[in-house]
């Protein structure tokens, strides 16, 4: 299994020279008038078998990265009849997808995907019908995550329903203890109780479980991982060793906060962190997102808002996070920020306090983060550190009052940081305030989990 996702089958990839490619292309039984206008250093011979294009001219073919399994195929496309083409070759499915913003291009970039491959791991997605489960599928596709098969799992309610993924039809199966036979990687997002019940069963079957719930996060034998922050925590877990394992995905507020705080922590060591969150509906699942939409419509129409998920009006309102309130007055979401930060930073002395608020935003969390450092760190140095941090973008334009917003980061992979400023309540440069926004379902959940899975490949 080791090295899966990085090796390419010779039957699919040929380094034949350009003239060979041209002659092969011209023999295709298609309606195409294909002609190559640039030299190709890499040529997919098998891919082109059976491919029917009309009036397309390839202008270049490149492979941006060995790890992505993606080839960029640039072609002149005077008319594109279909937004998505699919063809089969050598047992693998390849899709050509125009980038969404290019509807009627004169020249378009297409991605040739080769995710479905015999030499790739078998996957299971648990909770596939949910907000996070659906995002798992989007991220798998966006990142061309290699897979041999995918088992789509949800509750009995969804069993038998169909879903389409990368142009292939799947039947959703009910999650049972037998679901994990032959599964290499299981992505869980069906809530803590399901994870507690089925996570260990999957691991016993030899699957590596990446669990989105809070079920195992504080278990000392389970790594709690943000790939940009503490990848080393899961270094001992190997795909293909025959041994299953559990890896926990942190809480979404913790992920988004630590994406910004960790690069600064590495330079100046955070002694104390005060976090105030503004959390989106998505954190409470697909039904909460629907309720926010429905309530917004109802309030605008002068109707009484329907309150099924939350016990109070959500639209045009905000309230303390819905997680249970504990005996110390903090709610569970707040204490996750405290405890998970300590575990991820492997620093039991870091002081963290948090206040978590649910705001009527659809899918991205925002957080105000106040940091106190052991060593001085001025705001310009902090801005530079953050600009160079993986998975972080800086939006910090004081002149035009432009800073991160939930809408700007929605459906984006990167966490945005702005309002980077010295904390005037602290002496010298020992304190900073920053404002962070991140897509809760993406980096806060599905993307982080799939980055974890990528580290197994
Ligand atoms: N940072 C993080 O890691 C985050 C983690 N999460 C975790 O992910 C979980 C799911 O979140 P989200 O997608 O937003 O929630 P949703 O409510 O949108 O989806 C819940 C999913 O769980 C499935 N499910 C429910 N009961 C069962 C069952 N008995 N057996 C199998 N599947 C079941 C549902 O299937 P069906 O449609 O059939 O009912 C559905 O697919 C959360 O409970 C939380 O634990 C969520 C957000 C962030
Ligand atoms: N943090 C999510 C809730 C959640 O799913 O948390 P966890 O993954 O820790 O259970 C929210 O915005 O409400």
Strand tally is 21
Tell me which CATH architecture of the largest domain applies here: 2-Layer Sandwich
Shape: globular
Q: Helix and strand string, N-terminal first?
A: HEEEEEEEHEEEEEHEEHEHEHEEHEHEEH
For the largest sheet, list the strands in their spatial order: 16-17-15-18-21-20-19
Helicity range of the residues?
10-25%
Q: Counting H and I runs of at least 4 residues, what is the number of helices? A: 9
Low-pLDDT regions? 1-112
Domain count:
3
Family: Belongs to the aspartate-semialdehyde dehydrogenase family.
GO molecular function, one term: NAD binding
Enzyme class: oxidoreductase
GO biological process, one term: threonine biosynthetic process
Could you give the topology of this structure?
Elements: H1 18-26, E1 35-36, E2 57-62, E3 70-76, E4 85-89, E5 92-98, E6 107-113, E7 122-126, H2 131-142, E8 149-154, E9 162-165, E10 168-171, E11 173-174, E12 185-188, H3 192-204, E13 208-211, E14 245-248, H4 252-268, E15 270-279, H5 286-300, E16 319-320, H6 332-345, E17 351-358, E18 364-373, H7 379-387, E19 392-394, H8 406-409, E20 415-422, E21 431-439, H9 442-456
Parallel strand pairs: 1-2, 7-8, 7-12, 8-11, 12-13, 13-14, 15-17, 19-20
Antiparallel strand pairs: 2-3, 3-6, 4-5, 5-6, 9-10, 15-18, 16-17, 18-21, 20-21
Helix pairs in contact: 2-9, 4-6, 4-9
The site of NADPH dihydro-nicotinamide-adenine-dinucleotide phosphate has 28 residues, from helix 2, helix 3, helix 5 and helix 9.
GO biological process, one term: methionine biosynthetic process
Pfam family, one: Semialdhyde_dhC
GO molecular function, one term: NADP binding
